[in-house]
Amino acid sequence: MTTDDAPQRLADVRERIARAEQLAKRPAGATSLIAVSKTHEAPQITPLIAAGQRVFGENRVQEAQAKWPALREATPDIELHLVGQLQSNKAADAVALFDAIHSVDRLSLVTALARAMERQDRRPACFVQVDIGDEPQKGGVAVPELPALLAEARSADLPVVGLMCVPPFDLEAAPWFALLAKLADDHGLPGLSMGMSGDYETAVTLGATHVRVGTALFGAR
Ligand SMILES: *Cc1c(COP(=O)(O)O)cnc(C)c1O
């Protein structure tokens, strides 16, 4: 794939999302497309911005700090989401840079984020990442520990808007997405961050409010 194809790839992904929304009888535009630009540099990113994309995702704080201030200066209405694991000692940097954080998964991080938000008077929307397939190496809170972590996040006044997951890659995603949707519903959370290049249409039919798509927009990393 070349950068020349970027507007076409974006149009294709948007079309597929719209079709899935229609199939599931969800309102058009109910799903926000996060273009995950990790490992890609400005020359790959700017064609998507030119084609109208405004919501982007990164998985590393340092990489995002190097790329996005300049891109945002040129296009101030960019919305930047952190989709990767976050170390507590980077919480303040993450709060300063990102508009949403999708990887809140433990009490130490809840505490660090709450403190950084208070100091900076900035409140990025938070998603609690759930280890939906019980794969500890992936990050995310274990399903049985979710209620306690949500209670801690609420008492720390963290702006939790939803749940996020990355299902086991070798299994069909739909049952995991359905489980995440059920958990979010049980806890009265409206946001559902689920679905990547291989399964975002499935995620949209199961209620995703945010899909995180990299490869289908940028090509292979
Ligand atoms: C890289 C990444 C994505 C995007 O993955 P693709 O398969 O390239 O679409 C989504 N979510 C997370 C957490 C990621 O790290």
TrEMBL record:
<comment type="function">
    <text>Pyridoxal 5'-phosphate (PLP)-binding protein, which is involved in PLP homeostasis.</text>
</comment>
<dbReference type="InterPro" id="IPR001608">
    <property type="entry name" value="Ala_racemase_N"/>
</dbReference>
<comment type="similarity">
    <text>Belongs to the pyridoxal phosphate-binding protein YggS/PROSC family.</text>
</comment>
<feature type="modified residue" description="N6-(pyridoxal phosphate)lysine">
    <location>
        <position position="38"/>
    </location>
</feature>
<dbReference type="Pfam" id="PF01168">
    <property type="entry name" value="Ala_racemase_N"/>
</dbReference>
<dbReference type="GO" id="GO:0030170">
    <property type="term" value="F:pyridoxal phosphate binding"/>
</dbReference>
<dbReference type="InterPro" id="IPR029066">
    <property type="entry name" value="PLP-binding_barrel"/>
</dbReference>
<protein>
    <recommendedName>
        <fullName>Pyridoxal phosphate homeostasis protein</fullName>
    </recommendedName>
</protein>
<keyword id="KW-0663">Pyridoxal phosphate</keyword>
<feature type="domain" description="Alanine racemase N-terminal">
    <location>
        <begin position="10"/>
        <end position="220"/>
    </location>
</feature>
<dbReference type="InterPro" id="IPR011078">
    <property type="entry name" value="PyrdxlP_homeostasis"/>
</dbReference>
